[in-house]
Design brief:
The protein is α/β, with parallel strands linked by helices. It is 37% helix and 24% strand. The chain has a 6-stranded mixed beta sheet with strand order 3-2-1-4-9-10. Strands 11, 12, 13, 16, 23 and 24 form a 6-stranded mixed beta sheet that branches.
């Protein structure tokens, strides 16, 4: 009997779990630090340790599946490559819609004539020469996103532009019609932009995993968890990494359901960078009908209805301006001082000791900066190059890297591009101070928090008396913010109409607070969550007991909660979908729109038969390519028709064909 291997790569840890061939028991698990910039190191360590502990041969692994939070984290933190958007047939003002301009973050846009009408006919010719000329003047980019008006009705201009770009540049190209069959050009363009930005990152991870599997003799095909929890082949994930946003959270939902056998619950997964919350309904995750919302952007990616906050064990500890010195965690992720000291003790301890020997708080906050590259990157501006040169030898004290007011913005641009990282005080450090965990260097964490206590509040007083009291305040803030996240998610997803009040305001409302506090005066109040909460993540056991108490609900932290994502990655199914539309551009004309050129039929019945046959063939082929030999086929039809004066009138239809099944034992 073969075995199943699940792998999850998060911002801090890479997890691996080995299950028996029937997916009924966890045989072994392992964790390793996610290694940047070389992801292969952490991947190899986790996989090798899990296989060794399971006592199985690598050659007996039959299915390997990967989930990751790297794409989600990148969007939350605003990271990714620099891309160019090819915007065909749109008015200039459409760049301001659907958050597209914000998502571009100043990346170049090439606007061209072309595009199609709602019926799929050409609105204006596409001029390849204009694109060729524009490409010659383009600054250096890592990839391209192509979006054309009504490309879901006719993708011809997107395909022509993509072919030209690939020939001219050799760089990856994302076409918007490949990611969604829905209308809404700016939103499709936004999704394509984010996909193009993520390609290099996800491709690097997949390459690292595949290379190590080959090196140790695993010949099974690598699958990747999609944002809705389904499995897709790795080669598809390479070109469509946007579908892996919420991959890790989707895997965690599958893992939570498998580990607890709960049918209805809220799932809260705390990682290093984010807290991801989803609702488990009747044993399955709730799917977001509007598309995945990550990092403030509403995409067209079908994914679990996951709400993501920049709150994790490695979140930055910030002081809220004001007299009280209140703390706020996140959304930016830092490397914990305890972790940096584990890998670079000769740097961290002497620098912290030197800072503690001086009076007052250090100007650089006792933080460090570290590079995330193998070789000094190119394409940097003058100030970025100066800052990067100071990091060329490895991690350094922040004050030695940032020496002028121009250096800090340059360093943060390197951080945004994933080329550098800041190390500072985090909840993980606080947990080490309090003895809640002992993974890394607790002594360095204590020194860092002691230094942090010297920070002054608005009234001039220190924010804490000692490292222990500060650590307690930080951990209490984790509880407070986690409870707030769960309340926001519950108010947003509850079936009651709460009026026009936003979920974040409802969560912070005085009546909500009174209910949680069990206020008992002239008015008696009580409020609690109506379902249990399943807490996941390596640090869930440290933080989540108090969260359950605060919300008046049962908190379930199951065995193997620390590797739930890796388990969920390998217990799912392959789900392949194909969608298409029928429009009626004129009497006796019924046009079928798929990824191919539109086709017109004389009757609606003929068009429906042709569309269903085409979509079924596409979905079945995709499932077969993913290793499903006998998929279960379901067809969803949304037909827009009405009976007018005794005669049925057909106005259009949307069809979706789904092919699902477990991947067969497939070896590359």
């Amino acid at each position: 009997m073969g075995y199943l291997l699940g792998v999850d790569t998060g911002g801090t840890y890479t997890d691996a779990a080995v299950l028996d061939g029937d997916a009924t028991a966890v045989l072994a698990k392992a964790k390793a630090l996610t290694s940047r910039p070389d992801l292969a190191l952490g991947v190899a360590e986790a996989i090798d340790a899990a296989i060794a502990r399971a006592g199985v041969a690598a050659t007996d692994i039959d299915v390997v599946s990967l989930s990751t939070t790297l794409a989600t984290n990148a969007l939350v933190e605003g990271q990714g490559g620099r891309i160019a958007l090819i915007f065909i047939g749109f008015d200039p003002q459409e760049l301001t819609r659907a958050g597209l301009q914000d998502a571009l973050r100043g990346d170049p846009v090439i606007s061209l004539a072309g595009g199609h009408t709602h019926a799929g006919t050409e609105a204006a010719p596409f001029d390849a020469n204009d694109l060729q000329t524009a490409l010659q003047d383009l600054p250096a980019v890592t990839g391209f996103a192509v979006a054309a008006s009504f490309a879901t009705r006719n993708p011809a201009h997107e395909i022509a532009a993509a072919d030209l770009i690939r020939t001219a540049t050799g760089l990856p190209v994302t076409c918007s019609h490949e990611l969604s069959a829905a209308l809404g050009g700016p939103k499709r363009a936004l999704t394509a932009v984010l996909n193009a930005r993520l390609i290099g990152m996800i491709a690097g991870l997949i390459t690292a995993v595949e290379a190590h599997l080959t090196a140790i003799g695993v010949t099974a095909r690598l699958m990747v968890v999609r944002g809705d929890g389904a499995l897709i082949p790795a080669d598809m994930a390479r070109t469509r990494p946007i579908e892996t946003i919420l991959s890790g959270p989707a895997a965690s939902v599958a893992g939570a359901a498998w580990l607890t056998q709960q049918r209805d619950a809220m799932i809260s997964d705390i990682g290093g960078t984010t807290t991801d919350i989803c609702q488990l309904q009747n044993g399955a995750p709730r799917i977001d009908p509007q598309g995945a919302m990550v990092g403030g952007f509403r995409t067209m990616v079908e994914a679990v209805a996951m709400r993501t906050w920049g709150l994790g064990g490695d979140s930055a500890v910030n002081i809220v301006p004001g007299l009280n010195g209140d703390l706020r965690l996140g959304p930016r992720r830092l490397m914990p001082i305890a972790l940096l000291a584990q890998t670079h003790p000769d740097l961290v301890h002497p620098e912290l000791d030197r800072a503690l020997a001086q009076d007052g708080p250090p100007l650089d906050g006792g933080q460090f900066a570290l590079p995330l590259w193998h070789h000094l990157p190119g394409n940097l501006d003058k100030r970025e190059a100066i800052v990067a040169e100071r990091l060329a030898a490895g991690p350094a004290r922040m004050g030695d890297v940032v020496t002028t007011r121009l250096d800090h913005p340059a360093l943060m641009r390197l951080v945004t591009r994933g080329l550098a990282m800041i190390a500072g005080v985090t909840p993980s450090d606080a947990a080490h101070v309090l003895g809640l965990t002992d993974q890394w260097d607790a002594d360095a964490a204590t020194k860092a928090l002691t230094l942090f206590t010297r920070t002054r509040r608005g009234d001039g007083q220190r924010i804490a008396t000692d490292a222990t009291s500060l650590a307690q305040t930080i951990i209490a803030q984790v509880t407070t913010q986690t409870a707030d996240c769960l309340l926001q998610a519950a108010f947003a997803d509850d079936t009651r109409d709460w009026g026009d009040t936003a979920p974040d305001r409802l969560a912070a409302h005085p009546l909500t607070m009174a209910g949680l506090d069990h206020h008992n005066g002239l008015i008696r109040t009580q409020l609690s969550l109506g379902v249990p909460v399943i807490g996941l993540g390596a640090s869930a056991a440290s933080y989540y007991g108090a969260v359950g108490d605060r919300l008046g609900t049962r908190m379930i932290v199951p065995d193997h909660a620390d590797v739930a994502n890796a388990i969920g990655a390998v217990v799912g199914q392959v789900v392949m979908q194909a969608s298409g539309t029928i429009t009626t551009p004129g009497a006796g004309r019924f046009t079928v729109h798929t990824d191919d050129a539109p086709q017109t039929f004389p009757t609606s019945a003929a068009a429906l038969v042709a569309l269903e046959a085409s979509l079924t063939a596409t979905a079945t082929t995709r499932a077969a390519q993913a290793g499903v030999t006998d998929p279960q086929i379901t067809v969803t039809r949304d037909i827009n028709a009405a009976l007018i004066e005794g005669q049925e009138m057909f106005f259009g239809a949307d069809l979706r064909v789904t092919a699902r099944g477990r991947p067969r034992i497939a070896r590359s």
